[in-house]
Amino acid sequence: xxxxxxxxxxxxDDLPRRPVDWLPMALVPAVALIAIPFIGSPSTWLxxxxxxxxxxVIIFMISSGLMLVFGLMDxxxxxxxxxxxxxxYVGLTIFAPLSVWIDSSNLALNLLVLTLGLLAxxxxxGAVGLVFDRVLIRPVYGNHLKQILITMxxxxxxxQLIRAIWGAEMxxxxxxxxxxxxxxxxxxxxxxYRILALVVGAGVFAAMLLxxxxxxxxxxxxxxxxxxxxxxxxxxxxxxxxxxxxxxxxMLAGMGGLMWGLYQQNFTPAIGSQANVLIFIVIxxxxxxxxTGCMIAALLVGLTTxxxxxxEPKIALFSNILLMLLVLLWRPQGLYAVVNR
Amino acid sequence: xxxxxxxxxxxxxxxxxxxLLVLGLAIAPFAFSSAxxxxxxxxxxxFIVLVASYDLILGFAGIxxxxxxxxxGIGAYGVAxxxxxxxxxxxxxxxxxxxxxxxxxxxxxxxxxxxxxVRTVFFAMITLAVATAFTTAASQLSDWTGGEDGISFKMPxxxxxxxxxxxxxxxxxxxxxxxxxxxxxxxxxxxxxxxxLRIVNSPFGRVLQAIRENSFRAEAVGYRTIVxxxxxxxxxxxxxxxxxxxxxxxxxxxxxxxxxxxxxMIDILLMTVIGGMGTxxxxxxxxxxxxxxxxxxxxxxxxxxxxTGHIPLLSNIVHPDRWLLxxxxxxxxxxxxxxxxxxxxxxxxxxx
Lengths: 341, 352
Description:
heterodimer; A: 341 residues; two-stranded antiparallel sheet; 73% helix; B: 352 residues; mainly alpha; 2 strands; 74% helix; 1% strand
């Protein structure tokens, strides 16, 4: 990547292209194919695959922000799960008075209430993210040990406040009526909501790739991930960039949190800390600073969780950790490591 | 001062506090007759070992692990499973303990080799993931672990409450099995603590501190940082398992909530930070303060919550169940304003 301040798009054409590393991308279809004999019936396999992919894109939504923050500023936020919990509970609050719209079979009303919920989740998570950055992260900038300790403390405080406000009991989040139930492709039942999740997730991924590769701010983010000192030496303020990425990551986590809450339907305030574990596994598998790596890792985690949950529930507890260990054996830095720190 | 491995408290106030504490813990069964106080004193002892072992990796090696309760739990489950499946005697106790130590060592080695190769932040993330999976596994494999209910078991005869060492009370105290278990734990705690003090003041401990301060330079000087860090992790894990064994001996019960929960992990972090990272003596101060606060502060919170019952959100926030909220706030504040902890601050004052 060339981080020249002047736009010189034509100049890059003369440079030799960086060879594309296809191997990790082949992993997702490979895992799906390997699973066929273990699952047996093709229709069950299709159901599980769609479920796994839907889970994967939601995990991507909640983990991509953290991955960029970590890649860009070397800041490890252990409190990222708090934004997920917030997203899910804000959605709950928005949905509650609008339950008539949720139960109506009118798809437009359903989508409207869902959009409202997502918007609220994004706004609240973004606002809390801004506070998180100012109060917790800025003072301990550059110190890993303190970052982990402080953000862990922040996570506890936010989660406990959520318990104090919304209660600690399990709550139920209803999927809008027109999105409940399943479509049938042959014998394979495919839940409508999972298709929606796939569409939204793919949209987020595409938007993120576009922003990162086609815009100026995306160029700065990518340059910052690869070599922050150089970017600063060229006169860019990485601090502003970082706040923007951090808040955007929190927003994505809030949005993904609501999607995740709808995917699970029943959850407690521990939803964020449970997701935190998945996020970490995804970030480690994907490699730091790579959006594509993050997506591949999220899909792999989604698929293996669903396959093993069906075929061998006892292994399912450890399947993600096994997956992580295998990837680390193959590539100790993760699938794609952009960061050279 | 060879018993302290040449590492004295280095502050008169601290030394006095520690001597008082150790004396207090030594006479606790004679001075306080209530079961609750005895229980708190025993827990303080166990947590001194646990927190000191955590300080070994957090304070001396400079790496954060979230799997420390996992090893604590392995120790306790080792004893619990052995005692409930075998004849509850010394052989079962020894078998359970040795097996727990071996499992801890192997697991810690694997985790260390996998996650310390690249960067230490990975270690925090991976340990959190592994510990979570382990907790889930422990509550699901109920054939072995008793699931959420945990396992109650019997101890060897002399640790049973009905056992009497002497016919007559000594200084007004019936020396029963509970008192004997208490003193067994007391002696073990002191031995383990002194051993850890020996380790951090050995050349090995010095290398760990060098790696903590500047791992790049330590590597350049010729120390394999991954080997030292992994070794520190294994040692800490085995000491944590020892703490778990002591916990099981005291409680004669083990379940996920007593040894494995994330809440205990947070408690350990807090005790280490408040006491003072990288001092080992901080474990004694931190564990004692924390345990006393936990036992008696929740009563205060219940009082306040009752008094503010008419204010909706406030009474929720000061409810005893929201104890962790205040712990989190305290934790953040102490990392900000009090990063050296009590022991570090006292030592600084003594130097001036």
